[in-house]
Design a protein that fits this description.
The protein has 170 residues and is mostly helical. It has eight helices and two strands.
């Protein structure tokens, strides 16, 4: 079967409009129609992956549709890679907590930022920086622990002193 440019563009656009198993089945049927070396020809002429065509051919012959594992994609969570991460973060943050200076609330605040927690993790555990998660990940962990990284209000300085200073005109 001869593939003209208009036929190639039609087949490619049709494959792009389909998704999942329907796309794989279309690719497998097209590969079968191209002849004995149809998978290689489809890869070369149409720019399709032979692995996708093979999976579609398997689905076509067996009648069983393979499920797409979208949930299995992506990076694993930081807690799965480092099981002691939450306890390490909690130990560092708990040592730096302080109460509200005006005692208006019972909440505990910390002055540590996520970057400071990461630096302390690297310093205390002795691993390289590549092993520990990034600052946004540690920020998410701190939020999950219920930590509110807010600045602690200090008591305001006294503006009037009882004794005159050297710079005063008196």
């Amino acid at each position: 079967m001869e593939l003209t440019n208009s036929l190639k563009s039609l087949v490619i656009e049709t494959a792009q409009s389909l998704q999942g198993s329907a796309r794989r089945l279309f690719m497998a049927r097209t590969g079968k129609e191209l002849g004995p070396s149809g998978q290689r020809r489809a890869e070369r002429d149409l720019g399709w992956s032979r692995m996708t065509i093979r999976q579609g051919t398997h689905e076509l012959t067996s009648g069983i549709t393979c499920r797409d594992a979208f949930a299995a994609r992506g990076r694993t969570r930081a807690e799965a890679q480092l099981p002691s991460l939450l306890s390490d973060i909690k130990a560092i943050v708990d040592s730096q907590r302080q109460a509200d200076p005006q005692f208006r609330t019972t909440r505990l605040y910390t002055r540590l930022t996520a970057a400071a927690v990461r630096r302390q993790l690297i310093a205390h555990k002795g691993d390289t920086a590549d092993v520990w998660p990034t600052v946004p990940t540690i920020t998410a962990q701190l939020n999950a622990l219920g930590d509110d990284p807010k600045t602690v209000a200090t008591s305001p300085p006294q503006t009037k002193s009882q004794q005159p200073r050297r710079s005063s005109p008196k």
